[in-house]
């Protein structure tokens, strides 16, 4: 079964805040809509297991550990660009922080809020010089329930900076953390998939220093 080109019900992945609100950044669109996805429903069990009375059982469980598994397809064959820098790196960057951000994966009737647990990229088409132009990215995400408390805690622990002319994510990371290579932390926290699109005057959220990896 072949993948379907995106159309009126384009699939996409985007970073959202803890309440599920979209950041004013670009989303990552799918080149082709998925052919399928799977949802695994379950609950977590604490150390008490299932023994004891109903109250103990209730305390030993968490209400929802639903996980989504889906394969995303990205393609830069027509443009000739590198599919890694244009799409895949934006997805893998979401795993490069100590506390991965909440993401929305949407397609048709699917609107899943979750935190990425794993990303597995397979490159299937290349230019003559070896540059990959097509990728199949298998993503697993665990369901996230929007929480105003979590959002407030995150906001109080983070700082804000305004981008000025000449700023880059690397220079902002160096000023914030003393480490220019930590730019992916800032990119992931703000839903930035392409650092070259950074615009003067934009407000960025800077996660606390303890959250960069």
UniProtKB/TrEMBL annotation:
Domain of life: Archaea
Domain LysM residue range list: 159-206
PROSITE patterns per record: LYSM (PS51782)
InterPro entries (alphabetical): CIS_tube_prot_N, LysM, LysM_dom_sf
Protein name: LysM peptidoglycan-binding domain-containing protein
Organism annotation: Salinirubrum litoreum
């Amino acid at each position: 079964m072949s993948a379907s080109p995106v159309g009126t019900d384009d699939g996409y992945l985007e970073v959202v805040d803890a309440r599920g609100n979209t950041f004013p950044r670009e989303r990552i669109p799918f080149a082709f809509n998925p052919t399928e996805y799977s949802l695994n429903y379950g609950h977590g069990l604490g150390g008490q297991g299932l023994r004891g009375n109903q109250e103990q059982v209730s305390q030993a469980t968490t209400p929802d550990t639903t996980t989504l598994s889906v394969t995303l397809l990205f393609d830069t064959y027509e443009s000739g660009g590198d599919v890694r820098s244009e799409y895949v790196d934006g997805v893998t960057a979401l795993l490069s922080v100590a506390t991965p951000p909440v993401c929305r994966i949407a397609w048709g009737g699917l609107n899943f809020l979750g935190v990425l647990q794993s990303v597995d990229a397979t490159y299937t088409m290349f230019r003559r010089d070896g540059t990959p132009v097509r990728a199949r990215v298998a993503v697993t995400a665990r369901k996230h329930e929007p929480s105003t408390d979590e959002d407030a805690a995150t906001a109080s622990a983070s700082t804000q900076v305004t981008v000025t002319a000449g700023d880059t994510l690397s220079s902002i990371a160096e000023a914030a953390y003393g480490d220019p290579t930590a730019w992916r932390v800032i990119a992931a926290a703000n839903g930035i998939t392409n650092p070259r699109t950074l615009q003067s005057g934009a407000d960025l959220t800077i996660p606390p220093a303890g959250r960069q990896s």
